[in-house]
Known about the structure:
The structure holds 2 protein chains of 2 kinds. Chain A is mostly helical. Helices cover 73% and strands 0% of the residues of chain A. Chain A folds into 2 domains: 7-144, Four Helix Bundle (Hemerythrin (Met), subunit A) (Up-down Bundle), CATH 1.20.120.1200; 156-200. The longest helix of chain A has 25 residues, at 59-83. By secondary structure, chain B is mostly helical. Chain B has helices spanning 32-52, 56-80, 103-133; strands at residues 83-86, 97-100. In chain B, strands 1-2 form a two-stranded antiparallel sheet. In chain B, 43% of the residues are buried. The chains are: A mainly alpha, B mainly alpha. At the A-B interface, helix 1, helix 2, helix 3, helix 4 and helix 5 of A face helix 1, helix 2, strand 2 and helix 3 of B.
Amino acid sequence: MNNLDLTPYVPWIWFSFFGLFTLVMALGVVFHRKIVYNAVFLALSLVGTGALYITLNADFLGIVQILLYVGGIIVLILFSILLTRGEERGVEYVNRNKQSFWAFSLIMGLSLWIGTQFWKVQWPDANRNLAANHWERYSEIATIKTLPQILNRTVPVEAIGDGLMKPYLLIFELASIVLLVAMVGVVIYMKPEKERGADA
Amino acid sequence: MLNFFLNDVFSGQQCTIENIGNCHFYGPAVPVNAYLFLAMILFGLGAYGVVTRKHLISILMCMEIMLNAVNLMLVAFSRQWGLASMRPPFVSTGDDFWVYVPVGQIFVIFSLTIAVAEAAIGLALVYHIYRSLGTTQAEDFDLLKG
């Protein structure tokens, strides 16, 4: 076992682990009957997706994913489940009939087909080709280290903030307006009828 | 904290240009197609859940899975095309330098924003429907049925 060198396969090991984790937890969300278990499975699936972001050199997005989803949306979903629970404990939550099998076959067949079409595409492998060209051209020159210094490294938060503040500033502000409108709308919508009529 | 992915897993040393032969991180990375394949499977699962689940909050959760699949695709493409070579302006000679162009990650941030708004409004709708109709089953909402 000492000769076993897993070093080239470490990215594949991480990807397989977190990908299978995310997939199994998504299966739990889709197929488990109890809805609180669905919420817990969804939380774990989102954590797995955040880990996949981290394997894609997007550490900031992974952290934001875990904070925002598991800290915000899952809590919201759990509270909604607790608020809307009641007399429907014996109700079947999942459609199980002849159509569901064909729906599963059709949707998963379509998804797998599109996924295999992705496998056939030869994407211009930007990073690795750039690296190869770089090493061919500049391997003797010791002063140029810029590309290996940033290749396969974590994308810094400064780059994301730069993009948000310079070229995508308008969309950023529009997204904030959308959030504000959604929040105010939800607050007004959740008021009882009497108070809502008094306000508007 | 997250230097774990920057360092070599086994030796723990920082990956630099000197020890590039020992550094796994310059080895073959997982291709973007693997991430796209996984995202397609997740998207299909979420779509199937949206079609088959009866509880409204379950449908919202499956929609979250679909949104996450799309976000995963965006992040994978961002790793694929996240670098751009720049050349200093008005200089014909000299070395081009490299900058990060994380457009996919920026789009994922916008998508997260919309997902949060969607979840808030959707859950508010579910709760309002529950208060007025007393059920959260999707098949019970046939008020508009002719």
